[in-house]
TrEMBL record:
Single annotated GO MF: DNA replication origin binding
Encoding gene per record: dnaA_2
Biological process, per Gene Ontology: DNA replication initiation
Organism: Caedimonas varicaedens
Entry GO terms, CC: plasma membrane
Protein name as annotated: Chromosomal replication initiator protein DnaA
Matches recorded under SUPFAM superfamilies: P-loop containing nucleoside triphosphate hydrolases
PANTHER family in UniProt: CHROMOSOMAL REPLICATION INITIATOR PROTEIN DNAA, DNAA REGULATORY INACTIVATOR HDA
Gene3D superfamilies according to UniProt: 1.10.8.60, P-loop containing nucleotide triphosphate hydrolases
Length: 227
């Protein structure tokens, strides 16, 4: 899109709210959704691991769990300090989330945080792009505890889910997109929710700039990021 087009276009994108009704379930994510969201699925475990590639829906699923459990995202680097503060003032069961694990985490801090959460009958959800066996952990006590946690995996989103997300994003932007356009772009785009959202945003901007409904020509240009 040219700079003049950009000046004409008004970006009407809504902020993503990660609502549960906006989480589209399919073969790639249904089992993880049920295991993470349904309390009975946790059993006696005070933690769960959620692993999946970038753009597979980990953050969205964690945000839903956060809403249901009044959860708190902790900074990996300061997780023990922040966790202790919340535990001291907590009036009810605590629920913590560690994202992008293991990152630059201090293993001793996570070990103590995990023990505190279990001691207070809380819950800890750990998100990662890699499987536990690939984590470069050295502290054996931490490894044994984390390796014992239930592991849920998210696969790369399948066509059914991506198609539903595309339709939802277009509806959010209030733009009409023919089904043949969706069928054209799906096999030609990166298999991630971020890619879908970025494409929908670009196509929305282009329809606003041209003051036209979405067309296959526009979609081709946006796939090539030439819009």
């Amino acid at each position: 899109m040219t700079s003049s087009h950009t000046q004409l276009a008004f970006n009407l994108e809504r902020e993503s709210l990660y609502a549960q009704e906006d989480f589209f379930r399919g073969v790639s994510n249904d089992r993880a959704f049920q295991a993470i969201i349904e309390k009975k699925a946790w059993g006696k475990a005070c933690g769960q691991l959620l692993v999946g590639p970038s753009g597979s829906g980990k953050t969205h699923l964690a945000r839903i769990w956060q809403e249901l459990n009044h959860g708190i995202f902790l900074n990996l680097t300061h997780c023990l300090e922040e966790g202790k503060e919340h535990l001291e003032s907590a009036q009810k069961r605590v629920a913590f989330i560690l994202d992008d694990f293991p990152g630059n985490v201090l293993e001793q801090d996570v070990f103590h945080l995990y023990n505190l959460v279990c001691e207070h009958q809380g819950a800890l959800l750990i998100l990662s792009q890699t499987l536990p066996q690939e984590w470069p952990l050295v502290l054996l006590d931490l490894k044994s505890r984390l390796y014992s946690l239930p592991l849920q995996t998210l696969e790369t989103p399948d066509d059914e889910v991506l198609r539903a997300v595309l339709r939802k994003r277009f509806a959010d932007f209030q733009i009409a997109v023919p089904e043949n356009v969706i069928s054209y772009v799906l096999p030609r785009m990166e298999r991630s929710f971020k890619s879908v959202q970025d494409f929908a945003r670009r196509l929305n901007m282009e329809t606003l700039a041209q003051k036209k409904n979405a067309t296959l020509t526009m979609a081709r240009a946006c796939l090539e990021q030439d819009c």
